[in-house]
């Protein structure tokens, strides 16, 4: 698997599949190198997107692998790649979250993320916040 920063050529792919980001933000996140494309040969198999909570803490907003590529270590490889990049840039901590009804919470805990609280929004499952010292 190759992990590469998204380029303008990836815009349509991202816009068509990522329903959790405003279309108006995709181009700027590509320019700021805040989206990774995950590829097997030249085929896109997933993506990872991040930003910054409080403008100073890297926050992984989304990691997605297409179904046939799950459970093969690609997600872990991607998260560790991102963490290393954030560490190199001098960030001491990274964060992410997932809803309480999603299995991703177990994935993050296996990678060393610690429960840091929750967010409760009306009509949505509880959002669990995670932190990890880099």
Describe this structure in words.
The structure is a single chain. The chain has four helices and seven strands; from the N terminus they run βααβββαβαββ. By secondary structure, it is of the alpha+beta class. The protein has a single domain (2-133), classed as Aminopeptidase (3-Layer(aba) Sandwich), CATH 3.40.630. It has a seven-stranded mixed β-sheet, covered by helices on one side. The chain is globular.
Short précis:
By secondary structure, this protein is an alpha+beta fold.
What attributes does this structure have?
134 residues; alpha+beta; Aminopeptidase; 7-stranded mixed β-sheet; 4 helices; 7 strands; 28% helix; 37% strand
CATH superfamily: Gcn5-related N-acetyltransferase (GNAT)
Helix content: 25-40%
Q: Please give the domain count.
A: 1
Task: Return the CATH topology.
Answer: Aminopeptidase
Secondary structure: number of strands: 7
What is the succession of H and E elements? EHHEEEHEHEE
Shape label: globular
- What oligomeric assembly is this protein in? single chain
Adjacency order of strands in the biggest sheet = 1-2-3-4-5-7-6
By helix and strand content, what is the structural category?
alpha+beta
């Amino acid at each position: 698997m190759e992990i590469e920063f998204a380029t303008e050529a990836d815009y349509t792919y991202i816009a068509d599949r990522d329903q959790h980001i405003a279309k108006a933000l995709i181009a700027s996140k590509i320019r700021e190198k805040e989206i990774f494309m995950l590829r097997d040969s030249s085929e896109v198999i997933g993506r990872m997107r991040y930003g910054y909570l409080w403008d100073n803490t890297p926050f992984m907003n989304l990691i997605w692998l297409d179904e046939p590529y799950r459970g093969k270590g690609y997600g872990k490889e991607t998260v560790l790649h991102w963490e290393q990049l954030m560490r190199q840039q001098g960030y001491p901590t990274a964060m992410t979250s997932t809803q309480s009804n999603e299995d991703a919470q177990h994935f993050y805990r296996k990678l060393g993320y610690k429960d840091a609280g929750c967010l409760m929004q009306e009509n949505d499952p509880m959002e669990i916040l995670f932190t990890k010292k880099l």
